[in-house]
Design goal:
about 525 residues; two-stranded antiparallel sheet; 2 strands; globular
């Protein structure tokens, strides 16, 4: 375990330090940060590495086996009612407790929307429950897709056509928030479990579609929140709003420690609430259906403990250390005389920050394992990092120019939907999963404050322009991974052609040898007849 822990620490450090280095270089050159922001950022970088290390190890030992085992057992039970009820309840409970969704809900106005069952519900509270219902419904749809063999490409095409039709009827300030929610809700709690659940369900199948059906669950679960928030935008009375990032006053390192100590209890509680539904369902399945050996159960629960501690440290570091730095850096760059520089700088930050997203690690590892190395982790990371870079660049362009998000969403999703019909199906499923996975806590706690800080500095509309960065991050992987799939398909086709040509040459050589030996045999027979 120590050897694995050290290996994960090195791997995580390599992932986090590049983006930290870029931010620190900006601090030394064109955007110097105050002492407090810098101290929080540097300490947050170290804690981020520690937290992500524990999270990755725990995900492999605990969360992934839980999802695989529950998914496999659901299929073996062959009870559609249990299938549907379990999927819906898991989607609902896990999403309500997702830390990223709680953060998004807190950005909505606190004005009372309406009273129901004696409770006054604000827009933010309604958003959390609507999004959770959306995820639950579409996790159920994802499960039913595997059971009944529905075509994923056609399903995505129909759903996104409905999404864009709905988008024309919602209030403009809810458009960016809706697409942002699709990425934010598939966070570090939900993604590892949903991915493993999908792989577990598909693993018991022996037909040729089993590999394709292993993915697409996260992609479908990202559609539900978009639709839910678009519906909210049609009917709610309150306006969407954003609460600016508060930078604490810090004079020395004692203040830094105090800020972190004050924040830890909040995330201890949030992550505990988020993990509890998964653990409860797992223990139910363990004692009723799975009945695994005690040693296996203990190992899995230790993995969950690693996941819990790691995620608490990671989220605390991201929210306390990176969020103020992102907000300050975005505002500082946007106020420069040459503020266009925020576009290439944003692209550079986006390129490296993807490596620090915990759920991206889980996805790329599982893709490599399920495809038997045909789609390597390196291939996936390269495509996602390029897509992330382009998405942040487009978001910064919107901040500077104020162009409508429509001009980017419609072409982006249009290209993604067209590509579905020209690439292998497994790449389509992985691409739509990647859209939800890429927009994780690092995007919510650094890139979103970065974009909003810049938008506020230039006097732009924060709701219309700032929030769209998550929507861009969730969109570009759909195109990038499918382009990777198209390249892969061309190479595979070329390889098959070359293999066929080689076989044809070998066949020709064999035929020539056969003809030679036949001729030699005929000569021998003629010679033998002549001697007689």
């Amino acid at each position: 375990m120590k050897k694995e822990l050290f290996s994960k620490f090195k791997e995580t450090a390599v992932a986090v330090l590049p983006v930290a280095g870029v931010v620190f270089l900006l601090h030394l050159t064109i955007a110097p940060m105050p002492f407090g922001v810098l101290a929080l950022f540097l300490s947050g970088t170290f804690l981020l590495i520690v937290g992500m290390t524990l999270f990755q190890l725990g995900s492999e030992v605990g969360m992934t086996p839980i999802g695989n085992q529950i998914g496999s057992k659901l299929v073996e039970l062959k009870n559609l009612k249990i299938f549907i009820i379990t999927a819906f309840l898991l989607g609902l409970l896990v999403t309500i407790a997702e830390p990223d969704l709680q953060v998004l809900g807190k950005q909505m106005p606190e004005d009372t929307l309406f009273s129901i069952f004696g409770m006054d519900l604000s827009v933010g509270q309604v958003l959390i429950y609507m999004v959770a219902i959306g995820v639950a419904l579409f996790l159920t749809v994802a499960v039913l897709r595997v059971v009944f063999g529905w075509d994923l490409s056609r399903l995505f095409l129909i759903l996104y056509i409905i999404v864009f039709v709905m988008a024309f009827f919602t209030r403009p300030e809810y458009l960016a928030v809706a697409f942002d929610s699709g990425g934010v809700t598939t966070g570090p709690i939900t993604v590892p479990f949903i991915l493993a659940l999908g792989i577990g369900i598909a693993s018991v199948r022996s037909d040729k579609n089993a590999e394709n059906d292993s993915f697409g669950f996260v992609g479908l679960c990202s559609v539900g929140p978009i639709m839910s928030v678009l519906i909210m935008g049609m009917f709610v009375k309150g306006d969407a709003s954003y609460e600016e990032t508060v930078i604490p006053e810090i004079e020395n390192f004692a203040d830094v420690i105090k800020v972190y100590l004050d924040a830890f209890p909040t995330f201890f509680e949030e992550v505990a609430i988020a993990l509890s539904p998964i653990i409860a369902v797992y223990l139910f399945f363990q004692f009723v259906y799975l009945k695994l050996p005690k040693s296996s159960l203990i190992k899995t629960l230790i993995g969950v403990l690693y996941t819990y501690v790691g995620l608490v440290i990671f989220l605390t570091a991201a929210n306390v250390g990176f969020m103020p730095a992102g907000s300050f850096m975005g505002g500082a760059l946007a106020t420069l005389d040459y503020n266009w520089v925020i576009i290439p700088i944003g692209m550079l930050v986006g390129f490296f920050i993807l490596m620090a997203e915990p759920a991206v690690y889980v996805l790329t590892v599982q893709v490599e394992e399920v495809t038997g190395g045909a789609i390597t982790r390196k291939m996936m990371m390269t495509a996602l990092m390029i897509g992330m870079s382009i998405s942040v660049g487009m978001a910064m362009l919107r901040v500077i120019t104020g162009i409508s998000i429509w001009y980017l969403l419609i072409p982006g999703y249009g290209i993604a939907l067209i590509l579905m019909f020209f690439v292998p199906k497994v790449f389509t499923a992985i691409a739509f999963d990647s859209g939800g996975v890429a927009s994780g806590p690092m995007t919510a706690t650094f890139l979103l404050p970065f974009a909003i800080g810049a938008c506020s500095a230039v006097g732009g509309n924060v709701l219309m322009d700032g929030f769209g960065v998550v929507a861009m991050v969730a969109m570009t992987p759909l195109v990038a991974i499918q382009i990777l799939g198209a390249v892969y398909a061309v190479k595979a086709k070329r390889a098959k052609k070359e293999e066929a040509e080689e076989l044809a040459e070998i066949y020709e050589d064999i035929e020539e040898e056969i003809e030679y030996y036949q001729l030699d045999l005929e000569c021998a027979i003629i010679e033998l007849d002549y001697d007689e």
